[in-house]
Amino acid sequence: MSLRVKQVHVVKRSRYQEIVVAEVEDFGRSLILDGYIQSSEADEHVYHESLVHPAMVLHPNPTKVLIIGGGEGATLREVLKHKTVELAVMVDIDEDVIEVSKEYLPSFHGNAFYDPRARIIIEDGLKFVSEAKEVYDIVILDLTDPYSSDIAGPLYSENFYRDIHRILSNNGLVVTQAGSAFFYRDVYNSIANSIKNIYRYHLEYQVWIPSFGYSCNFVLGSKEYNPIEHLKKEFVDSILKFRGVETKFINGQRIEALVSIGIY
């Protein structure tokens, strides 16, 4: 897949990766890490809403949410739309991504970094989770693809998912983006099977992200709630309305469709 870059706003080499913000033809302003588009103005909402809201809706009262990764702040933005949330902790290893996003990607984070409910921590997510004492209702893993970055690899392991299970409440959930099942089936299967082995219920779903050039896969693990039974159109729409969540892409019909299609 070839994309035409119309204008480059910033290029920076952090301790961990190359960070680029550029105007990309057809997709607008985009965050590019080590040559991979992470978010684009045209479709970032499709990715972030799909990652965040199925898990958030499935939990009846998510008050404490942990985000690992998500440096541009869009996942944090979507989490904070739920009025039940009292604390959203975002842990990212690369402070430079956050600072670049604050300056060049304001529509992506929507000032979520400055919300009083948000706590931003610069740390390795693996280390943070292993040392965590707090308990969370939902953990969201918004990471670079497991095959595109050395720093993300260990955060897709079964050991890491078990550590997350430890810091989840009794009815807690975890959701991760899992790259492309089509192009990297073995890697995807390892992620999906690991979560399936640990959690009582699991859900696999996928959403086409045009700027990625493929369907992005997601895997959700749940201790108590069966997503296949609960994520129906009327239920989802009623929860989003009650919590005052406004979306551009995700709604009850789309979530029910994602759950129905799934990957099995």
Automatic annotation (TrEMBL):
Which sites bind spermidine? H48, E72
Catalytic activity, reaction form: S-adenosyl 3-(methylsulfanyl)propylamine + putrescine = S-methyl-5'-thioadenosine + spermidine + H(+); S-adenosyl 3-(methylsulfanyl)propylamine + spermidine = thermospermine + S-methyl-5'-thioadenosine + H(+)
So where's the catalytic machinery, residue-wise?
D142
Q: Which residues bind S-methyl-5'-thioadenosine?
A: Q17, D92, D124, G125, P154
Q: Which InterPro entries match?
A: PABS, PABS_CS, SAM-dependent_MTases_sf, Spermi_synthase, Spermidine_synt_N, Spermidine_synt_N_sf
**Keyword set, alphabetical order:** Cytoplasm, Polyamine biosynthesis, Spermidine biosynthesis, Transferase
EC numbers for this chain = 2.5.1.16
Q: In which pathway does it act?
A: Amine and polyamine biosynthesis; spermidine biosynthesis; spermidine from putrescine: step 1/1
Recorded GO MF terms: spermidine synthase activity; sym-norspermidine synthase activity; thermospermine synthase activity
Alphabetically, which GO biological process terms does the record hold?
spermidine biosynthetic process
Where is the PABS domain positioned along the sequence?
A: 1-223
Describe, as the record does, how this protein assembles with itself and its partners.
Answer: Homodimer or homotetramer.
Q: Give the protein family.
A: Belongs to the spermidine/spermine synthase family.
Q: What function does this protein fulfil?
A: Catalyzes the irreversible transfer of a propylamine group from the amino donor S-adenosylmethioninamine (decarboxy-AdoMet) to putrescine (1,4-diaminobutane) to yield spermidine.
Q: Which PANTHER family match?
A: THERMOSPERMINE SYNTHASE ACAULIS5
Q: What is this protein called?
A: Polyamine aminopropyltransferase
Q: Which organism is it from?
A: Ignisphaera aggregans
